[in-house]
Amino acid sequence: MARRRFVLFLVALSWFFGLFEASSGDADPIYQACVEQCGKTGCNFTSPGNSIDGPWYRQEPLYMQWKQWDCLSDCRYDCMLSREGERLKLGYKPAKYHGKWPFKRIYGIQEPVSVALSALNLAVQFHGWVSFFILVNYKLPFRPNKKTYYEYTGLWHIYAIFAMNTWFWSALFHSRDVDFTEKMDYSSAVALLGYSLLLAIIRVFNVRLEAARVMVAAPIIALVMTHILYLNFFQFDYGLNLKFCVAMGVLQMILWAVWAGVTRHPSRLKLWIVVLGSALAMLLEIYDFPPYQGLLDAHALWHATTIPLTYLWWSFVRDDSEFRTSSLIKKAK
Ligand SMILES: [Zn+2]
To answer: 186 CA distance to ligand 1 centroid (A)?
Structure first.
């Protein structure tokens, strides 16, 4: 009985928060009744009699508690699918449930297309990084002090780590949306955006002195760290985070675009395409449409557009390292 009470408590809790989320699908009374009924009848566990709110030695093992959370998640999923099926027959458009579109799971993966595309993004980032690594370490000449001529080598290595970390957590988050994976995904993305802004400033303004670089980096790192700590330990504010990310994203795009317009860099066209492409891709995040066949939504398409852009981006980075190296050698002669 205690288990049922617990499930009912979860249902009540989700309903309570549903009031604030106010997304239409989960406010539907038929859906709510379905989830409630499913919690009563659908969650039969094998070891009756143990209580989740009793003393620790009477409590269920952790995996059983997990199973109950899973039960609610499964109930929501099954009710969502059946309700969406009914709504479709009645000619209604898909609705969001608990802030998310109705996706079909494949092997328990919540958004399989976004997971596959995140993995591809990770692979393209890795390929780009390795090709850059080989170029600067094995193909281009070194300075007499055994360092690369290119002044931004170390910064791009760190960029690659931030980018691959972001796509790793993106793949995990889209497979299973729980509090932890969501926080890791958002935090990684914010860290990557902050770092790429820093990199944009340093590259565009040709900041070469170590002291000047620290002066650029310190305030950005402080701001981004504060924002990440605020999100994780104070309030997970989606609206605020969106504004923060858009501000950082737009700022670096303007920097690159203006620079691409005034510089005589031989690969400025690649830069232009990446900036323009990223700006257009951002529209997909704004014009959010429901998933086609329960699989392909605007967010997944957005993850698809970053694959060719990333390829082109690393190609620009390789060109940049060759261009800087050759002009520095010419200067030295
Ligand atoms: Zn995503």
So the answer is: 9
pLDDT number for residue 237: 86
109 φ/ψ angles, rounded to the nearest 5 degrees = -85, 125
The pLDDT value recorded for residue 46 is: 35
Give distance in angstroms: CA of 45 to centre of ligand 1: 34
pLDDT tens for each residue of 102-112: 888 888 788 89
User: In the numeric block, which tokens belong to residue 95?
Assistant: 């609705």
Cα 264 to middle of ligand 1, angstroms: 35
Centroid of ligand 1 to alpha carbon of 249 (angstroms): 16
Among 127, 154, 166, CA closest to 245: 166
Centre of ligand 1 to C-alpha 66, Å, is 25
Q: Distance between CA atoms of 180 and 139, rounded to whole angstroms?
A: 42
Average pLDDT across the chain, whole number:
85
CB atoms within 10 A of CB 258: 12
Could you tell me the pTM of the whole model?
A: 0.80
CB neighbourhood size of 119 (10 A): 16
179 CA to middle of ligand 1, Å? 15
Write down all domains in the chain, each with its CATH number in brackets: 2-89 (no CATH), 112-332 (1.20.1070)
